Amino acid sequence: MNISVQPYRANDIACGWNDEVMVLGYDGRYMQGISDGAQWNQIPSGHLYAAATLGETTYAGGELGAFYGLSDDGVDAIHRGFRPPGDFTQPQYSSLWVNGTETKAVLTYDSDTSLGNAEGWQQVPARVSEGVGSAFRFEHTEIWGIDQPEFAIAADRLYRWEHDQADGPRWVDAGLEHPESPYYEEIVDISGTSRNEVWVATYASLFRYDGEGWREVSPDLVEAQTNDIGALRFDADGDLLVVDSEQVYELEVSEDGWSPTAIYESPCEKPSAIGRDDDGALLVAGRGLCIARRTNGTWSTYPLPESVSAPAGSTIELERSWEFVKQPGSRPMMLTTGVGLFELRDDGTLKREFVGNTIEAEYLPTHNAVWVLTEYGVVAKYY
C-alpha cells in the first residue's frame, strides 16, 4: 500500500474517535487514517507527543502544556488559563516568582524573562546596564519581590530590576560590594519582608538592604572560609533563619538592627534550604537529601522512600534540596529537590508527590493551589 503523504516524523499512534488510526507528528501535525490519499493536518502548537481517545473525542498533548480535543466538531483547544510562555522547544526553566496578590508571575529560562498577568505573557529579553556585560544568563536564578520583582540572583551576582525604562525593563547591578571577601561573588540566597528589609547571603557573609543601599552585617556571626552559609529565610513572625555548614541561627530583626536569639548545631551537610512549619518547628535540608525537623530541642531526620532514584537526563544537581513550601490548611510542608517534590508527613515519613527535578514552588492561597517549577515547565496542584 502506498501512502501519498509528505514524510513527517511520527511521535505517537492511537485509535482515533472515528475508529481510524491517528498519527501525531512534529509541528502540530496529525493524520487521520493511513489509506491512500491521507493528508497531514496542522494545529499551530508545536510538536504533538501523545494521544488517547475517550468516547467521541481524541485528546492530544504536546509542548508547553498544549492540550487539544479532536472530534467530528473540529479541534478544541483545552489548555486555558495558565500556560508557560514562549514559542520554543523545551526551554530550561530556572525560577518562578508570584507576587503577594497573585496577579503577576515571572518565569526565567535560559537567557530571558517572561512577565505574566491576566492579559497574558510578555517576553522580556535580558537587558542589562552598561558595565554589567552581555553574558548575563538565568541558568541558576532566584527572584525576590513583593508586588513586583525587585532583585535577582543570577550567575552568582545580584541584580536589581528597573521597571520604568523608556526602552523596557532591564536588570542592573545591585551595588553589592564586598571586595575583602574572596567569596563575594558566591551569592546563595535572598529573602525579605519589605522593600526596605531585604537580606542576601553569600557563602561567607550576610548583607542587609534598607531601601537605599547594602551593608554587611555579619562579620562576627559567620567566620569567612569556615562556615559556608547555605540558605536564609524569614519566617511568618518576621524572624530570620540562617543555616551554614555547622550551625542554624535564629535572628530577631528590627529597625535598630538584629541579634541572634538561638543557635543550634546544623543537622545536614551543605544545607541549602531552611524554613519553619505551622507548628513552629525548624526545617533544614541539605546534601544527600538530608531532611531534618527540630522539635522539643531535638533534630530528627526523614528516611528516604526506597523507591527514590535519580531521574535520567536531568541537568541540575540531583541531590540538591531547593526550598520548603506550605500547603493549605493543616497539610504538612513540602520540599522541592532534584529528585522530586516531597511531602513531610506527620508520622516522620516522606511521600513523593512529583517525580523529577523540582526547582521552586509557590503556595497561592487565593487560588488554593501550589505551583511547582520543573526544568521544563510548571505543574500545579489544586486543593
Could you explain how this protein is built, in words?
With 383 residues, the chain is mainly β. The termini are far apart. It has strands at residues 10-15, 21-25, 29-32, 40-42, 48-54, 57-62, 67-71, 74-77, 93-98, 105-109, 112-117, 120-125, 141-145, 149-154, 157-162, 170-173, 187-194, 197-202, 206-209, 214-216, 229-234, 240-244, 247-254, 257-265, 273-276, 282-286, 290-295, 298-301, 321-325, 334-337, 340-344, 350-355, 358-364, 369-374, 377-382. The relative contact order is 0.08. Residues 1-5 and 131-136 have low confidence and may be disordered. Among the domains are: 10-77, no CATH class; 267-383, 7 Propeller (Methylamine Dehydrogenase, Chain H). The protein contains no helices and 35 strands. Strand 9 (93-98) and strand 10 (105-109) form a beta hairpin. 0% of the residues lie in helices and 50% in strands. The strands form nine sheets. The chain has a four-stranded antiparallel β-sheet, with no helix packed on it. It is globular, with a radius of gyration of 24 Å.
Map the helices and strands.
Blueprint: E1 10-15, E2 21-25, E3 29-32, E4 40-42, E5 48-54, E6 57-62, E7 67-71, E8 74-77, E9 93-98, E10 105-109, E11 112-117, E12 120-125, E13 141-145, E14 149-154, E15 157-162, E16 170-173, E17 187-194, E18 197-202, E19 206-209, E20 214-216, E21 229-234, E22 240-244, E23 247-254, E24 257-265, E25 273-276, E26 282-286, E27 290-295, E28 298-301, E29 321-325, E30 334-337, E31 340-344, E32 350-355, E33 358-364, E34 369-374, E35 377-382
Antiparallel strand pairs: 1-2, 2-3, 3-4, 5-6, 6-7, 7-8, 9-10, 10-11, 11-12, 13-14, 14-15, 15-16, 17-18, 18-19, 19-20, 21-22, 22-23, 23-24, 25-26, 26-27, 27-28, 29-30, 30-31, 31-32, 33-34, 34-35
